[in-house]
Amino acid sequence: MDPKLIRNFSIIAHIDHGKSTLADQLLLQSGTITEREFHSQILDDLEIEKERGITVKARSVTIDYKKDGQTYELNLIDTPGHVDFHYEVNRSLAACEGALLLIDAFQGVQAQTVANAYAAIEVDLEIVPVVNKIDLQVIRVEEVLEEVENILGLDASEALRVSAKTGLNVDTVFDAIISKIPPPSGSPDKPLKALVFDSKFDKYRGVVTYVRMVDGVIRKGDNIRFMRENVNSEVIEIGQFRPGLVPCKELGPGQVGYVLTGVKELSRITVGDTVTMANNPAEAPLPGYQKPKQMVFCGMYPLDATGFESLRDELQKLSLNDSSFSFQPETSDALGFGFRCGFLGMLHMEIVQQRLEREQDMDLIQTAPNVTYEILTKSGKTMVIDNPQDVPDPSQIDEFREPIAKVSFIVPAENVGTIMQLSQDRRGIYKNTEFLGPTRAQVVYELPLSEIVYDMYDKLKSVTRGYGTMDYEIIGYTAADLVKMDILVKGEQVDALSTIVHRSTADRRGRALVKRLKTEINKHQFEIAIQAAIGGKIIARETISAFRKNVTAKCYGGDISRKRKLLEKQKEGKKRMKQFGAVEIPQKAFLSVLEANRDD
Ligand SMILES: Nc1nc2c(ncn2[C@@H]2O[C@H](COP(=O)(O)OP(=O)(O)OP(=O)(O)O)[C@@H](O)[C@H]2O)c(=O)[nH]1
């Protein structure tokens, strides 16, 4: 394939601005998919993505497009739009020469439009602004284009105006891809160099490695090497995404496709690695990617001990296709054997948890999530803390550090004050405000990650009536006055309820938490004290009074069937309970920490 006829591009956008719809429309208009397939959102094939309407895992597809008697090979690399999946965006961009920057004609430039555009500018991609949804009743295209110029510093004079939904003007998108985005360079005669930009585990074929060719040619039977992992393997099959896996004879410079090898474990194929020939290797690998870093952790426990092995199997299966999710066995006095799971962010956590519950039909107890902390001990050691239970005794701590994020909000001008107040209340450090036009502004704060991951997004949406957006990146760790807060139920500490809080908010959080727990834990036949403590000191207390529970008391006379129904209902309610000493604690109580933060 002549590289001059190849174009490699991504579509980048804020969530919901229509990226998947445009991708599908490009596939439809080029004849890659049928009308029927178009209506079922072909690129988002995971069930959860369909249900929640978000793209989680990057996909890629090759489109043949005829123009002026030539057939061009257009490689679209799909990217997810949500903050949690930044690293997926960056890895996709490195495989492209250009990007379509898609912007909703009414909503205009939003927080992730900015973040994604900057990522593309950083790697020197040619950016084509595309205003989408021009079929809507109310649009403000001119203002949106002004925002593109003011905020992103891009030339918007030749921006395209399309409707991905109806297909209006989508032909101009093909023209722009061919005329504006540069073809890849590279030589078939140089030693093989191909970038691994994704990989996934397929039940039938094993590990499918996604590659973007740079130099050289790859064919079936070649003996290749993954340079960073230093793994050699024979090529069993190569092919392209059309959009299913379709084998081909060879892949040359600039092309995008897949390689099947004898490698069985996904963990041995690192995204960002370089593929070369084992007997004629390239001198140096391509610049790689940073590994994704888990920033949010929580415990997951089977409801009863027999579920441990099957939970392990399920977690393993999930991690086969999601290398950004991690899990390790842990034990809790209260919950028994379970796993500590790490996620990129809260959305990522929710998605994994839902997949477990839905696809595997598992009953789980999940503890409240926490971010990753660092502790410098008196002996000079730096500990990474993923679990509040691992915090050492305060006498051994020299410095307690928390992750800090640079958060950028884009909000209606009248909400700037509220956002500043919200950030200030959460220990934010003000950076700057920039007006994007008469009605909207960008406000930047540095905020502790723990103060934003749980509910900042919801709060932002509610104070701006849905018009505000935010994006964040972790910029490092700083020392803070943090303490571990324990919860005692009937005098005994429940380890899975411990949290790390800032000392200045400890009293308030402690009170909110015990109050919440009081509503979550049912009355028992004895009185139950619920206390919050720091070190040995009790900072808050609530009491659940004793109650003799007799659900059948309501059933007068001998209505047996009704009585049985009630008993069954009670049994059902017990399903998600964990016995702790004499007290039954329901699943929801373990998430109280999270809820109490939100009540705050
Ligand atoms: N009216 C109108 N609606 C559109 C258009 N393009 C997309 N939409 C709608 O906007 C919503 C979001 O579109 P998606 O294509 O799922 O958005 P996305 O950017 O891929 O979203 P993520 O994958 O979650 O990042 C869907 O309900 C689409 O039907 C358009 O041109 N006009």
UniProtKB/TrEMBL annotation:
SUPFAM superfamilies: EF-G C-terminal domain-like (SSF54980), P-loop containing nucleoside triphosphate hydrolases (SSF52540), Translation proteins (SSF50447)
Chief location of this protein within or outside the cell: membrane
One Pfam family it belongs to: GTP_EFTU_D2
Gene Ontology process terms (BP): positive regulation of translation
Compartment list: Cell membrane
A GO term from the CC aspect: plasma membrane
Domain named Tr-type G: residues: 4-185
GO MF term (any one): ribosome binding
Entry-linked Gene3D superfamilies: 3.30.70.240, Elongation factor 4, C-terminal domain, Elongation Factor G (Translational Gtpase), domain 3, P-loop containing nucleotide triphosphate hydrolases, Translation factors
Top EC class for this record: hydrolase
Residue ranges of the TM segments: none
Membrane-topology annotation of the record: Peripheral membrane protein
Reaction catalysed by this enzyme: GTP + H2O = GDP + phosphate + H(+)
EC number: 3.6.5.n1
NCBIfam families: lepA, small_GTP
Family recorded in the similarity comment: Belongs to the GTP-binding elongation factor family. LepA subfamily. Belongs to the TRAFAC class translation factor GTPase superfamily. Classic translation factor GTPase family. LepA subfamily.
Function: Required for accurate and efficient protein synthesis under certain stress conditions. May act as a fidelity factor of the translation reaction, by catalyzing a one-codon backward translocation of tRNAs on improperly translocated ribosomes. Back-translocation proceeds from a post-translocation (POST) complex to a pre-translocation (PRE) complex, thus giving elongation factor G a second chance to translocate the tRNAs correctly. Binds to ribosomes in a GTP-dependent manner.
This protein's name: Elongation factor 4
Lineage of producing organism: Bacteria, Pseudomonadati, Planctomycetota, Planctomycetia, Planctomycetales
